[in-house]
Amino acid sequence: ETGVTQTPRHLVMGMTNKKSLKCEQHLGHNAMYWYKQSAKKPLELMFVYNFKEQTENNSVPSRFSPECPNSSHLFLHLHTLQPEDSALYLCASSQEGTGLNTDTQYFGPGTRLTVL
Amino acid sequence: AQSVSQHNHHVILSEAASLELGCNYSYGGTVNLFWYVQYPGQHLQLLLKYFSGDPLVKGIKGFEAEFIKSKFSFNLRKPSVQWSDTAEYFCAVKGAGNMLTFGGGTRLMVKP
Q1: Which tens digit of pLDDT belongs to each residue from B61-80?
Q2: Shortest CA distance to B42 belongs to which of A108, A93, A26?
Q3: Which of B42, B43, B46 is the closest to A104 by Cβ?
Q4: CA separation, residue A79 to residues A34, B29, B108 (Å)
């Protein structure tokens, strides 16, 4: 499945570093999402972009900064993270609107982030 | 606000046993319901979904789920599991807008 790709797959960073996660979808979708998957916690929605506009920020700390330059690319800029931010960060995309194949989110493989 | 509850966190079965994973949600309006699966080392994949129509939905790999509106439930079933079904299973609900809310997941281990 190569519909949604994410880079890097693994990232180790210190608390003072600045890094970015990248997501690209090849499905022609109009909505993209960032999720956080931590051990022993449900998958948490972080941000939603519809037609490149951010429509949802689920009370995410400002040390996470999303960017959506076009409907195919989504970034998550990271700075001054904390060790508790270590998790698997998942990107997803969907086609929002009407029709049979709309409203289903397709996920990338994730970036495993470790903050030291 | 919508929420999803998966009651079984860990399930261990022998091959050929029948499977039923519980999922209950809370939301007052029309919902779309999903089951996703995450095999070891792989990304989340859609197993099946319910949007409308027949409440019994059939998905890939012999899985099915039944939407019971009166019980706010969307349980996942498979008559006979295989070792390759070992994975984590997530129920999710989508109400208004495009926010998807996930349950906590159920880890299934199938013993050969």
Answers
A1: 999 999 999 999 999 999 99
A2: A108
A3: B46
A4: 16, 39, 36
